[in-house]
Amino acid sequence: MKQTLSARITRTLTRHRRLIQAIAGAGLYLAASLAGVPLLWILLGASVLGILTGKVFCRWLCPIGFLMEYMMGMSKDTRFQQLYQYHKLGCPIAWVTGFLNRLSLLTIRHSSTTCTSCGACDRACYLSTLEPAKYSLFRKGKDSPADAYACSRCLACVQACPNQSLALGQRTGGRQ
């Protein structure tokens, strides 16, 4: 299947997401600590980014998120891995951008015409694996994890889809 330019860019970025997060997180840490950039400016910047893309800050830019993901990867214990959700409780950026997931200009879009219902996207999505009775990216009657407060747009679901039935795209009315 021929990939669109947007799909190729998304897949390439997703493959290198942790490296991007490490570099961006280190840059933000240095900006705040050494350059004296006020945390309010970082919060405002993340909020503007949240309006455009939703909760991407946590999985793409956050230095603490990078450390949490690194620590989660050291253990196969799912209870330990669920701690990723708990560290966000004290983060004002996670609050603001999580709320903006339902309103952001970009979201994860699902194409039912190419979807074979293989479930690869749900197996890749950490929200769908934590709460399979509530969330699914392709099943009707379930909430889309892309609109959930906790979805941090890691795009693992997009990368996992063998038919390119999921893509990061512009939000339109109704379920994406």
Name its key features.
2 strands; about 180 residues; mainly alpha; single chain
Count of extended strands:
2
Largest sheet geometry: 2 strands, antiparallel
Elements, N to C (H/E): HHHHHHHHEHHHE
Low-confidence stretches: none
Distance between the termini: 22 Å
Mean pLDDT: 84
Reconstruct the topology from this structure:
Blueprint: H1 5-15, H2 17-33, H3 39-53, H4 57-60, H5 63-73, H6 78-81, H7 83-87, H8 92-100, E1 106-110, H9 120-124, H10 126-130, H11 156-160, E2 166-170
Antiparallel strand pairs: 1-2
Structure notes:
- With 176 residues, the protein is mainly alpha-helical.
- It is built from eleven helices and two strands; from the N terminus they run ααααααααβαααβ.
- A two-stranded antiparallel sheet has the order 1-2.
- The radius of gyration is 16 Å and the shape is globular.
What's a quick, concise take on this entry?
The protein contains eleven helices and two strands; from the N terminus they run ααααααααβαααβ.
